[in-house]
Amino acid sequence: MKILGISGLFHDASAALIVNGEIISAAQEERFTRKKHDKDFPVNAIRHCLEIGGITLSQVDAIAFYEKPDLKFKRLFDSYVYYAPKGFIPFLKYMPAWVTDKFFFKQRVFSLLKDIQKTDLSKVKLLFPEHHLSHAASTFYPSTFEEAAILTIDGVGEWATASICYGKGNSIKMIKELHFPHSLGFLYSSFTKFLGFKVNNGEYKVMGLAPYGMLNSERVNRYVELIKSNLVHIADDGSIWLNQDYFRYAVASEVINRPDWEQLFGVPQREQDSKLEQLHCDLALAVQLVTEEVVLKMAKEAKRLTGSDNICLSGGVALNCVANGKLLKAKIFKNMYIQPASGDSGGSLGAALAAHHIYYGKKRVVGKQDTMKGAYLGPEYSEADIKKLIEKHNLVYDYVDDEHELCNTVAEHIASGNVIGWYQGRMEFGPRALGNRSILGDPTNLEMQRRINLKIKFREGFRPFAPSVLEEECQEYFNLDCDSPYMLLVTDIQENHKRPLPDDYDSMQWRAKLDVNRSDIQAITHVNFSARIQTVTPESNRRYYNLISAFKKITGYGMLVNTSFNVRGEPIVCTPEDAYNCFMHTHMDYLVLDKYVFAKEKNKKSENGVHNEVVLAQGDQKA
Amino acid sequence: MELIKSIVKFILTIFLAIFYAIYVLPASLFVKFGKDKFVFQKRPGGSYFIDRNHTFKPEDFEKM
After folding, report:
1. Which of A573, A26, A4, A17 is nearest to A341 (CA)?
2. Which of helix, strand or coil describes residue B1?
3. Is the pLDDT reported for residue A622 higher than 80?
4. Distance CA A45, CA A322 (A)
5. Are residues A309 and A349 in the same domain?
6. What is the predicted ipTM?
7. How many other CB atoms sit within 10 Å of the CB of residue A394?
8. Mean pLDDT for each consecutive 10-residue tract of chain B (64 residues)?
């Protein structure tokens, strides 16, 4: 039984292939087209999946699209009806495309598929699970739970914006759902917009900015109160009602009613790349606190409804690692599983799994390990591809055949303060780099955070970095008593690694906190002593584990700074060529492509390096 | 080809504008003031969740 899952045409297009229930491959379209959050039909991702599976399109039994276009159209149309005459212009602007999609969707999909492979698709079934079923399936079926509560929260699918489900064996029951326009995802995105970041892209930045807010300060408390009394009403069961007088997303391309927000909070909307101030951090903290309250209440309701000890999370809001960490700490459930591709990109995988287990009624085998294969489900490139790259650019390199020697060499470079582009094996599925397409550095280096942000990632200096830590070392550094293989949990560092803070730390302006020496693992310690953890085992990623172990032998620290191998505004690198381009256009010191080690010093040549450093560094100065 | 596309788009826009005037606007009044409380309106009671209680079946996958 071969099922191809597809998501796309809204944002984060992707494809996934499962064969007899086993996840064979999954990849996001953006990695191939180099357009971040690419929404187009995932032509390249489908090609990749078929190639890995060694099959043609005509050999696929079913194609599962991650949502129901008809229902989505109905929601859109009903919104225009309800809000008329508001939304007249967007109605004229967007309806023609939707009308075309509604009436010709299947034909369009088959036509696009035939562009990939000219083959007979008459026997291939086209299936349409609901959007939130796709999310629920993407997290429950790969998990290690025989039964579990499932909580999915995102912007919107068809009508649902959140759901509480119960999964048992191969069945999923949807118990309750929250309907558009009342959406926790949209509430968070609205603040993303108001704080001057891009919607569907800058939500991480809001999450990263929140710890700079002054917890329990009069201003943060006032913002929380303003949000809860004007923008959102939170019921005891976590369901929410958003006051649409303040929002525009239901029928317009703008997200918020800007004048009303400015009046409510008494501050103008921040323009993109303009200076960030303390009040922006406080606003970010306020919406983060409200989000956590909603997530915790919804989780309690899920517990009440299902009685399960296990919970599976998915949907874009499940990428809010801080809220996940709070949920874990609250101990509402004994066990928790989070789909690493929780956003819409994971919808393709969920759609395929739902089709396999529900449509075809195939039994589910639950193992001790989840079935995500460490999320290393994307394309892998051969040594021949690397050799081609070397030849094309006439590169100087060291080839280190022995894996331990390779890891020792790279670990020594890292310990000497160098920043490494680390590229090996299959690309990760989902937004996190987990040691196959990563930029690595020394967590104990006081300058590392600033250096990677400004000179390598070319992004805002306030953004934190995450550690990859040997699983057996995790509790030595972090207050976390479970594994976190997908970097989706935020927790505090242990007391013995904290440094004494200045007496006025809490009242310091946000930017000044960055410069305070907070811990002996400064580069991965956020200003509130939190860190977003990836635990690494030999089973999950052998070579990466060996590299961290080698670093430990040199420094005593069994962890590395791990950030995704890309620069601001670009997707994570996919091919060796992408990795090389990123390496040459930043201040990275070494590039490791499988067993080939390239030093920047030896490969400087006439490449137009560090092209955008000046522009972005100036932007950061303002920020 | 571009000219034909532009003409089709123009005609479709005119058609949609007429449709908006004769259907969407009156329907909007009906929905706002009718007895049927729509999802956009605040409902009385302690929860905004909608009960679904639905176990997914194969037939749920067929409809678009």
Report:
1. A26
2. coil
3. no
4. 30
5. no
6. 0.90
7. 8
8. 79 90 90 66 78 97 92
Phi, psi angle pair for A354, to nearest 5°: -65, -40
Show the tokens assigned to A478: 């972090």
E-strand spans in A443-558?
Answer: 466-470, 489-492, 530-536
Task: Give the minimum alpha-carbon distance from B12 to chain A in angstroms, rounded to a whole number.
Answer: 7
A562 touches chain B (CB under 8 A): no
pLDDT per residue over A174-205, tens digit each?
999 999 999 999 999 999 999 999 999 899 99
The amino acid occupying position A165 is C
Q: Which residues of B touch A235 (CB under 8 A)?
A: 46-49
CATH classification of the domain holding A245: 3.30.420.40
Averaged pLDDT score across all residues of chain A: 93
Which of B11, B15, B38, B40 has the most A C-beta neighbours within 10 Å, making it the best mutation to test the interface with A?
Answer: B40
CATH, residue A484: 3.90.870.20
Q: Of A349, A239, A356, give the one whose Cα is nearest residue A301.
A: A239
DSSP state letter for A355:
I
The set of residues, in sequence order, having a beta carbon less than 8 Å from that of B59 and lying 6+ positions away, is none
A298 has a chain B CB within 8 A of its CB: no
Assess contact for A28 and A13: CB atoms under 8 A: yes
Question: Domain range spanning residue A355?
Answer: 2-134+342-371
| Residue A376 counted as domain residue | no
Same domain, A51 and A176: no
Q: How, if at all, do strands A590-593 and A559-564 pair?
A: unpaired
Among A557, A562, A563, A561, which Cα is nearest to A477's? Answer: A557
User: What residue type is assigned to position A17 of the chain?
Assistant: L
For residue A560, being part of any structural domain is answered with: yes
Q: Which of B22, B43, B47, B48 to mutate to test the interface with A (most CBs of A within 10 A)?
A: B48
pLDDT for the residue B43: 66
Contacts of A471 (CB under 8 A, 6+ apart): A483, A535, A536, A537
| Bridge partners for A151 per DSSP | A164, A313
pLDDT tens-digit map of A230-255:
999 999 999 999 999 999 999 887 89
Quote the radius of gyration of chain A (alpha carbons, Å): 24
